[in-house]
Structures are given as C-alpha cells and as structure tokens.
Amino acid sequence: MDLNLFRVFEVIYRERNLTRAAAVLHVSQSAVSHALARLREQFADPLFVRQGRGVAPTAMAQRLAPGIFDSLAGLQQSLARLGRFDPATDTRLVTLNMPEQLEPTLLPGLLQQLSQAAPGLRVRTSSVRWRELPLAMAAGQIDMAIEIARPVEAALRQVQLLSEPLCVVAGPGFVGELDAQAYLAAGHVAVASWRRGLSFEDLALSHLGLARSVRQRCQNYHAACLIAANSDLLLTMARRHAELLNRGNGNRILPLPLPLPPVGLNLYWHEDMEQDACNLWLRQQLLLLAGDRG
C-alpha cells in the first residue's frame, strides 16, 4: 500500500472534513477524494461517511486509527532525530504568530537575542485569528504562536511563557484617587475589535459579577494610550506594555484596584513539530527570553 494514503487517512480522521483535509495536505479536494477511494478499495469499507457538513469515521476506521497514528508518529520522530539544525549557520524562515499589540514588547528582544545566537535565522510575524490557527499550524504555515492562555485542541502543545499583571493608565484628565468604586464609575477605553467581542479585562470583570462603562474601543494600545492622555478615560492593560508605551506622554500608571487575574501568555506549537530541531531550539530561546523578563 502507498504510505501516503495513511497520511491522508490521518488528516481526514482528525479534520472530519475533506475540504479542510485538502488544505492541510496542500492538495486539491479531488486528490483527497481519489486517495480516499483507494483506501476504501484496499479495506473494502467506506471508512468515512457523510455527517452534516463533514464526514464521520466508520467502525473499521476507528479500529485502524490508533495503529496508523502510532506508526506515522514513530516515523516522524525517527526522521526528526536525523534532522540537523545549527543556529550559527541556518538561514531558514520561521513564522511566529502573535497579536499585533504584543510585537513592541516581545519582538525586539527576541530579534536582539537571535542576532547573536542565530544571525542567519529570519523571523516573520503574522496575526492569524485563533479559530484559524490550528489549521494554519497543521499545514506548516505557522511554526509557533504566542497567544493568551486558553484551552486548545489535542493537536496543539502549549507552555506558559509570561504572566503579566494588569494596571490602569490614567491621563491628566482623570483626577482623584483610584479605588474600586472610582474605577467602576469612570469611563474606559478598551482595545478589542467588535468582531472579537469583550476584552480580557471585561471578561474577568464579568466573572466577578461586575461591569464597567466602555465609551471608546480601538484596535491597538498605542492609540488607546493617546486617547487616555487626552481625555478622562481609563485604560486597563498589561503593566510592562504600559510602561513601554507611556513614556513621556503625561499618563500615570496606577495599580489596578480590583483582584483581576494577570494576563497569561502561552507559547503554542503543533504536535508535528514537537521534535523538530529548529522549532525546539526556538521554543527554548523564547522561554529563556521570558525568564530574563521575570
């Protein structure tokens, strides 16, 4: 049997959709359908049947899956061990996904570190939405991602990278002491698009049974800091980022008067890259950088 068919089986089983399987495999949907037809002929079983907008495995496919997955994983690990990565000479391009607002605090330090340890390694950043990220990582379009901590599907791996406490940015227009009552009574500017819904701090407040008045929304923290500097609106954001963006603009950085959790940032990668030498090395560099940042 053509071993490529087992890879097709694996992706269809995980994606439960022929269109998504084709995207992961970088082939046409007709090629996936043709491979599935060959598999069905080999095993004399439909293997996958239509269910809603996707497909569901038959009983035989469910029996086959564990052995196929284990065999492919073992083969991939063997090949990964043969892989060689020399940071001093490697010139490959690595794609790192992160929200745009994280770039000022994370990217300069990473590039400075890599300029000495891996001068030929190139890093490109992207900002793919979370719901599209697993498919992009499975397809090899994104090597790793830095995102707010959240539950993930089985194919993704994660480790905590940073935990940033929240603070409040107040411009000259906000007068008086900042306590919990004043915070909830004030007007606020928030960084979150309407399509993505509530910001991190609004979700955290809702878990406490509290709400605030968000009078202005914008797409990045630099704009939000300028808005705070020219109004009486308060801005809630990660403290390290606030210290970076508010130098010399007259804003005060105040402690958050409510017990909201810190913003947890995790590093994510696909299980297929678990033993990849370059991916593993770069994950280690990011964790070292996070350690240096406290």
UniProtKB/TrEMBL annotation:
Signal peptide: none
Top-level lineage group: Bacteria
Keywords noted in UniProt: DNA-binding, Transcription, Transcription regulation
Domain HTH lysR-type: 1-58
GO molecular function: DNA binding; DNA-binding transcription factor activity
Stored InterPro entries: LysR-type_TF, LysR_HTH_N, LysR_subst-bd, WH-like_DNA-bd_sf, WH_DNA-bd_sf, YidZ_PBP2
This protein's record includes keyword Acyltransferase: no
TM segment ranges: none
Gene3D superfamilies linked: Periplasmic binding protein-like II, Winged helix-like DNA-binding domain superfamily/Winged helix DNA-binding domain
Family: Belongs to the LysR transcriptional regulatory family.
Name assigned to this protein: DNA-binding transcriptional regulator, LysR family
Organism placement in taxonomy: Bacteria, Pseudomonadati, Pseudomonadota, Gammaproteobacteria, Pseudomonadales
